[in-house]
Amino acid sequence: MKSFAFILSTIVFATSACTHFTKVATEKEFTDHPVPYSPNHRQPANNKIPWWSANENQVQNAFCRSKLPATSAAITAFYKNRPLGPGYEGGTYTISGIEIKDERPELVLALSKLLFPANPEEKIKEAPANFQQTFKINSSCSKALCAVQKIFGPEVGPQMLYLMDQFDINTSPYAFINASAFNASEIADVIRSLELVHPDQLPFGSNKKLIRFKRGYTRASYGDDGGSVVANAAIELFDSWSEQSSVMRQYTLYHEIAHNHSDNQFSDYDRSASWLALSDWKENKGGEFESLRKKAKQGHPFVSRYGETNPFEDFAESLTAYRFNPSWLKQKSKDKYNLIKLLVHDGLEYTSAKDCQQAPASKGYQRNIDQNGDRLSTADKDYILKSCRKPFYESVLGHMPTSFFDACVNYEATLLWQKQNQLQYPDLVQQALFDPTLRVSVLKFKAVRQELAEKLQPEMTDWLLKSMESYSYQMSSAQSNAEYCDVWAKMENRIYPELFTENKWATKSIYRSRNFSPSAGAARGLCLDLVQGFVPTAKSTRSTVTSWLRKTVYISDDGKISERGITRDSLMTYIKDRTRLYEK
What we know:
The protein is α+β, with helices and mostly antiparallel strands. It contains 25 helices and 15 strands. It has a 5-stranded mixed beta sheet. Helix 21 packs across helix 23 (520-532). The two termini are 19 Å apart.
């Protein structure tokens, strides 16, 4: 689901699950080198079930396909007719020598991601040191669309920028090693594949790798049969993928996205006990999986022979059948169909045209919360406040964005709300809406979040001022702002107040931090921002960033906190701005 994907966007998924004609490589990190590609077009022998879970006709006529711009002209028109959006400010950005003027900030960011390595530690030898000089981009080419056309080609460039901006999908050979440039027809099929993914399931990663692997090569780990490997879940598309028809390219890519529906949520649906039990998958001593049900011929719950390979391909093929051939999946296993419906597709189905008008189940739950209230007691809210105090403080003086405080509130509130409404909503499946391993929820409790933030804002203001009283003897009127704020950096020796360390969100969430003290850099930045005059984020994006960078202004009055501009009112205003509710 979209919320999970956004929260977990900093994690990279790279296993070797792959679309393959005859066998699959063992799961491992991709550390092997590329080797020459040897075409291998062997077709699997006939069997009682097909190799794939759907055919071309079923993919081509799938219900609920959205319409996305796939050509350069359509993408140019898309941005021409798109509003600039709130917070837009003009100005000039320089990216590898290219001057981009008065551009949408999201396109500036998308262009930057396409031109630089996704992993800063990797060196992409094909990447120019200066794109402006290499591609001779002059001052008249001052928009992101123009720049990508010069660098990647007039057709492919806009397609790449669109995928990067709209879906956080990076197709650039300058962002990843062993990548070749897509051609226009290939990348158009990438876009068409995303027409088959429900919008609530996108993006499914941050700066997500989706590359055309080095042409003429495959991976060494695939051995002599590497020519049969079409794609993998990294996502890397090989020569065999390009040789497929347009429709089967889309099928293959959807299959790889299906792997990501499990792993990118970090729920590991395809490794869960509930999934493994549906086909009696058991792991042997060698780390490989065998289906005991298949061995004993107790039914045959697989939608394809490729799905028989292991539980991961079973999961991806079943998801692909759910999307393109749902009646077949129901026939083979109603249990798999229902599990996928609730855990992966949020109650959405694709069996007929009328299904396209349905809303995800979570939106019904959210509507109930928004219209009828959360019905949480004072004691419930006190518990949530106690549980989420630390991420609130850390959003100002730690290592976390405010969204982590939101995640904590939403998760703890969802647990309480779910207990109250289990009888009313029997389909409210735990892992479909909230994940006890990640400790995140897709439901939003905005009123609770706002109420708790309003309680914590003055509390934190007073705690900060009281904490700095013990360092006041180190402040003097002779200090520059930088020297004065270096004293604030000593805040790292303090400990956040009243930490509820028994709460599982604080200790077991993926956002957990074992450092219970403030960050020196964040405290210094807060001080510099205040003594030099900060601009609220709601009013300006560019000037807010600029205010964090100022370090050279001098004030020659005495060293009292109030006369440096850091009063209780100014500090409270600052904290309110940094912790305000962003989402409408």
